[in-house]
Amino acid sequence: MKTPVAAVAAVAFSAGLAHAADLRICVEGAYPPFSTINNEGEVVGFDIDIANALCAEMGKTCAMVETEWDAIIPSLEEGKCDAIVASMSITPERMQRIDFSKKYYQTPARFAAAAGVDWEDTNEGLAGKRVCVQRGTIHQDFLEAEFPSATLVLYPTQDEVYLDLTSGRCDAIMADSIAIQDGFLATAEGEGFAFFGRPHADPRYHGEGAGIGVRKGETELRDAFSAAIEAIRASGVYGEINDRYFPFDIYGG
Q1: How many CA atoms lie within 13 A of 148 on its CB side?
Q2: Which of 78, 159, 182, 199 has the fewest CB atoms below 10 angstroms from its CB?
Q3: C-alpha to C-alpha distance for 193 and 116, rounded to whole angstroms
Q4: Taking the mean position of all CA atoms in its chain, how far away is CA 67?
Q5: 14 vs 192, which has greater pLDDT?
Q6: Is 80 exposed, middle or buried (0-12, 13-18, 19+ CB in 10 A)?
Q7: How many other CB atoms sit within 10 Å of the CB of residue 188?
Q8: Burial letters 203-227, b for 16+ CB under 10 A, else e
Q9: Among candidates 85, 89, 127, 126, which has minimal Cα distance to 106?
Q10: Sequence-ordered list of residues with C-beta below 8 angstroms from that of 36, at least 6 positions apart, any chain
């Protein structure tokens, strides 16, 4: 019988507790429903629950280290954390800097805009449109390469992307489809907005799914995370976490 998550995986935010933990996990806290800050100031969400479950499976105590997205890979490289659990897609570009576990979920990207727009999700269809996206993401890379006629506007966080769409400073946005659906369209702020076009999942840009990032050469830790992902999938723990947030299995094919 597995040890309960709460008994093994400690979520700590102070520097002292973080250093006392076996592993420090870099998380973002600004990407609902995967990670966000609740009313008590705690970072919560699918990524956080997965991180805790993996730590429990590995028999490790873990502390969550809230980190801005732009700084998350440098923080790992500089030793400020030991792993990244932040919906980070496994891409060839990122693999030049860090190593990844196997994926722990995979969902496509989509565009969203005011409900009822008749735009095509092509370079020509979005020519001249202000398309807003979080900086340093696979979505930025995809848009720069495949939609050069659009006017790309970059933001530090996904929440700021949503804010400027609702205020009219963006014509359209692109992000992970589940993040847009649950973090925006399903909220009061997302009323009057909708997806348009088709799902996008080009491996050249969108990678092989989201994985756990570790420093280059730390193969033992990488493989331990991969084994833990397989174990929580087999035990049903992954499914329990999945069902707290989503009505379908986001692990992907």
Answers
A1: 1
A2: 78
A3: 8
A4: 13
A5: 192
A6: middle
A7: 5
A8: eebbbbbbbbbbbeebeebbebbbe
A9: 89
A10: 29, 30, 43, 44, 45, 183
Tell me what pLDDT residue 12 has: 40
The values of phi and psi at residue 212, to 5°, are: -90, 120
The DSSP bridge partners found for residue 194 are 113
Task: Classify residue 156 as left (phi > 0), alpha (psi -120 to 50) or beta.
Answer: alpha
pLDDT above 70: percentage of residues in the chain: 92
**Does residue 71 have a pLDDT over 70?**
yes
Neighbours of 159 (CB within 10 A): 16
pTM value? 0.84
Q: Which residues contact 147 (CB under 8 A, 6 or more apart)?
A: 123, 126, 131
Cis peptide before 33 (omega within 30 of 0): yes
- Whether residue 209 contacts residue 103, with contact meaning beta carbons closer than 8 Å, is answered with yes
Q: CB neighbours of 81 closer than 8 A, spacing ≥ 6?
A: 24, 25, 26, 65, 67, 75
Q: Please provide the DSSP assignment of 194-230 as one string.
A: EEEEEEE--HHHHTT-EEEEEETT-HHHHHHHHHHHH
* Residue ranges of domains in the chain, CATH in brackets: 5-106+208-245 (3.40.190.10), 109-205 (3.40.190.10)
- The strands making up 109-114's β-sheet, listed across from edge to edge, are 151-155, 130-134, 172-176, 109-114, 193-200
